[in-house]
Structures are given as C-alpha cells and as structure tokens.
Design goal:
There is one protein chain. The chain is mainly beta and 382 residues long. Among the domains are: 30 residues, no CATH class; 97 residues, no CATH class; 125 residues, Beta Barrel (Lipocalin), CATH 2.40.128.630. Helices cover 4% and strands 44% of the residues. It is built from one helix and 33 strands. Strands 2-7-8-9-10 form a five-stranded mixed beta sheet, with no helix packed on it. Strand 13 and strand 14 form a beta hairpin. The longest helix has 17 residues. The protein is globular, with a radius of gyration of 20 Å. The termini are far apart.
C-alpha cells in the first residue's frame, strides 16, 4: 500500500469513527460496475412512503419493526411513524424532539428507541405516547431488545444493561472492555433461552445470565493483531445470529465463527471481515463481507459453498432471505437478488438513488426496507 493510500485510509477511518458520516476504509475503492442481469423474477412495489430524514448520513441503526399489521420506522431527528403493513397508510406520527440513534424495538404494546444523548425511550404502540425515559451512561447505537419481563440495551462504552420494561429502572449492568480505537457501531443484544449474547468491541462473544447479568461464558472470536490501533480493530458490529443451539458471529478484520450456545466452545472459525452482518437461511450461513463479497458457508463446518464478488465496494447491507432468495442493497439504490444455492444474480431493481444501509425485513414474499434518507418500501417478487 502506498504512503498516500495509507494516509487516505487512516483519514477516512478516523472520520468514520468521529462522526459516522463516512464508510470504513474497505470502501474507498470505486464500486464495481454492475453486469447485466437476466431477470428471473419481476420486482413489484406494494407501497412506498417517506418517513422523515432517515439516518442523516450517520450510519445509524434504524430498522423497520414489524408486527402482524403494522410497520414502525423512525428517523434521526426524533420522529416515529406507525404504518399499515398492507397499504402503507400512515396511522400516526410522533415527534419526540430528541435526536435518535437506534430503533425501534417492539414488544407487546410498547416501542423502544435510543437517543444520541444516551436515553432509552419507551412509547405506547397504539399512539406513540412517551411512557418513560431512562438515562444511561453513554450513547446507544444498537436497537434495544425486549421481552415481557426484561429490556436489554448496549451502549458504546461497552456496557450491557438489563432494565425493567415497566419503568426503565436498571436491574443490572455488565461492562466489557473497549479498545482505544473502534468502528462507530455496536452489536445488538440477542437472546437464546436464558442467555443474553453480546458481541464486544474487543472481538469477544459474551454470554450473560439474562436474569442476573452475571457472566456464563465468553469466547474470543478474533484477537487484535498489528502494530497500529487501526490494524487492531476487531469490532463485532453485526448482531450475532442464533440457529438451533449454535451462535454465528463475525468480526471486522477478523473471523466468522460458530459457537456452541450451551458451553461457549468454538465449533469452527475462518478468516472474514464484516461490519454489515450475516444470516442463516436455506440451511446454510450467508455473510456480506466488508469489501462487498457475499459468501455462502456451511453452517456445520464453515467451508465456502460459493462466493459472489460482482458487488465489491458497493457498501452492501446484511443479506436477507426473501422468497427463497438472498437479497442485499447497495449505496447506489440497487437491490440485488441472488440464488441461495449458487450465488447467481436472479433479479435487480433500483428504487431511486437512496443508499440502503439498514438490515431489511423479509417475511415470505414480503420485503420491507428503509433507505438512508427515509424511504420506506414494501416489495414482492413475481
């Protein structure tokens, strides 16, 4: 790497860390030109609505939350909308007058959002009324996770909280180590049985007792290596994924791995770098790596089944499983559908020029996606 190129990487990375308005250095390259796709499916739009200003180009985690009949979506300026899932009609809108950083989470009759000032907010699902707010020690960049009895949240200073969902009171907290330099992002808490899982900024997967917050086990997925702090970044920014009794997790500049949920034993591990995420579907594991390659891996061994490199440096979303296909979005507004069996392109559509950043929600033949600038769409294939 030339000295000029290295300087650009360092500047871009520190800019990304400081204000979250740029992309990691993997994406400094020009995006790969798209090849023609012989479409096997037609992409149809059920509805499209604008919901505010999106992330404000801050790469925040605003992901649509789904219930049986509604979609909930928020923007960074503090507005949240309830949308009819069938028609796209706006049911209500609430302006919280706070800068938001992640959400919404949904459970029962409540919604949960995080602010850029470290507040956790609980709203009534029926009309968006603020029920309570709780001040935590640092900003939240991961979507809160709720059960009927507990609420879990992770802050960028490495702390995981267990809270009472009724009033936001803190039941317990657990601190993980945060290295001097990290990507601006955070893994979200994930539950499996009585374990709360969290991917830490130092490359460890931590399992806590969800009731007490006490550690049950932790396993190192990637060890920081290199002479500079930049080279030593091994964040887990993508949420862990649980399938049966196995946890799948991926780090930046490190590895993708499978871990036994009961014991914390590492089942397999292979080199991989990702900040976007992964998905278990069709019996296998799918990963979007940090350079824009899409991988299909055996979930039992980690062996590569196929790799699609036709979308490199296009800043892809995490893969979603839609109508039997793998779908990802990119920074130029394209959505790409791939065969889950071999990675071939089967369909493509461009929904304006908006960047797709957030993980998409797919249920059977329904795909719901939220763009960086606040365009919320529902699509299907035919």
């Amino acid at each position: 790497m030339s000295r000029i190129r290295l300087l650009l990487v360092v500047i871009s990375t520190f800019f990304f860390l400081a204000c979250a308005s740029d992309v990691p250095p993997d994406l400094l390259e020009e995006p790969t030109e798209l090849s023609e796709v012989e479409a096997q499916f037609a992409v149809k739009k059920s509805w499209s609505v604008n919901v505010g200003y999106g992330t404000g180009k801050q790469r925040l985690k605003f992901v649509p939350a789904l219930t049986a009949d509604e979609v909930y979506a928020a923007d960074y300026k503090g507005r949240i909308w309830a949308i009819d899932r069938k028609t796209g009609k706006k049911l209500w809108k609430k302006d919280l007058q706070k800068l938001l950083s992640a959400g919404p989470g949904v459970r029962g009759d409540r919604l949960y959002l995080a602010t850029q000032e470290g507040q956790l907010l609980s709203l009534a699902r029926q009309d968006g009324r603020l029920l309570w707010s709780a001040q935590l020690d640092s900003e939240l960049l991961a979507i809160p996770l709720a059960t009927d009895e507990q609420l879990f949240a992770a802050t960028i200073d490495g702390q995981i909280y267990g809270l009472n969902p009724t009033d936001g009171s803190v039941l317990w907290r657990y601190a993980t180590r945060v290295p001097p330099l990290t990507l601006r992002g955070s893994s979200g808490p994930v539950l499996i049985d009585n374990l709360l899982l969290y991917g830490a900024a130092d490359g460890r997967l931590v399992a806590l007792n969800k009731i007490s917050g006490l550690p049950v086990w932790d396993v190192t997925i990637s060890v920081a290596e290199g002479r500079s702090e930049l080279e030593r970044i091994v964040d887990i920014d993508a949420d862990p994924v649980v399938f049966d009794d196995t946890i799948f997790v991926v780090t930046y500049q490190g590895h993708v791995a499978a871990v036994d949920a009961g014991s914390g034993v590492l089942l397999w591990r292979r080199e991989m770098s990702s900040f976007s995420g992964l998905q278990v579907a069709n019996g296998e594991l799918y990963v979007t790596d940090s350079s824009g390659q899409i991988w299909s891996l055996s979930r039992r061994t980690g062996a590569a089944l196929w790799k699609q490199d036709g979308l490199m440096f296009r800043d892809l979303t995490a893969p979603a499983f839609h109508n039997g296909l793998i779908v990802v979005g990119d920074k130029e507004g394209y959505l790409h559908w791939l065969s889950a069996d071999n990675g071939d392109f089967l369909a493509r559509d461009r929904i304006g020029n908006d960047r797709w950043l957030s993980p998409m929600r797919a249920v059977d033949n329904e795909l719901i996606a939220l763009s960086e600038t606040g365009k919320l769409i529902s699509l299907y294939l035919e």
